[in-house]
Amino acid sequence: MSVLSGGVFGSATDDLTDLRNLVDEIGARSFAERIGGRSLPDAFDATAWRHLEEAGLTRLSSAPESGGGPVEAAVVLRSLARHAVSVPVAETDVLAGWLAARAGLEVPEAGPLTVATELDAVPYASEAAAVVLALPDGERLRAAVRTPADLSITKGHNAGGEPRDTVATPGDGFVTVDAATELTRRGAWARCVQTIGALDAAVEFSVAHTREREQFGRPLSAFQSVQHTLAGMAGEVERARAATDLAVAAAADHGFGSDQTDFAVTVAKVTLGQVVPTVITAAHQLHGAIGVTIEHRLWLATMRARSWIGEFGDNAHYARRLGRLALNTEDPWTLVVDGA
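Now predict its structure.
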């Protein structure tokens, strides 16, 4: 059973069904309440965050008492992305919460967190209860915790409308921590999982649109060329889902610091780098001009997928990395089978 199950093929019942249903309910409510109210940058959804926090879903993998891990975190991230919920759960749980604990830094027990690996393109810096700075220092990181009041913040956004702010910070109070590689890997992992959710939404919207829209007296979905396009989109998403499921399983079984997870995340990033342009191009072709404006639900899915796949390393970076892994292995078949 796929951890990231869903999409046009539906999902079977498993041990994660209740969690999926809970997050999907919160996400669907958030999406419905914000129809017609999106902006650039898209506003932080405080109501959805409150519901998620009350349900104990904002720090599943970073709070030891939660009992959660990468599998549960992946279910939450994929569902929230599918519904385009504007909350920094990935940043709070997978990145900032983990890094603060690793560096021995205190962060607020409640409220959203974010992480700044650079001083520009910081997700949700204005809305965070605290910003965990993680500035590169060779192969290590200089880490510190700041509140938004401590920072000079210039608001911005990525191509999908999500807040990506520029911050300026005082230069004292940092600690050095050996966590640069794992933080990047965690960020890439989270964005892969989120991208699966966005692609699922893009395909679902395309299926619904072609069933409802008529041309020459027939639904668009009755045309063979449209059917082929939809099938191709769904197949590409399933290819990406399989690769990302491998990354989720590797993180759950071996931890984010392992060679197995390094390999699996690299494969997922390369696969999604190929799949995202194909799927979102097809989705916009099927929707026509109506899908390219912020007012349309497709825009939220496709533009966030485009943005996420380029964060924490782009496709070219991971393709080169995968090539080096293969060339440096005595037996490439062992790399494919064992992932290490």
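The mean pLDDT is 93.
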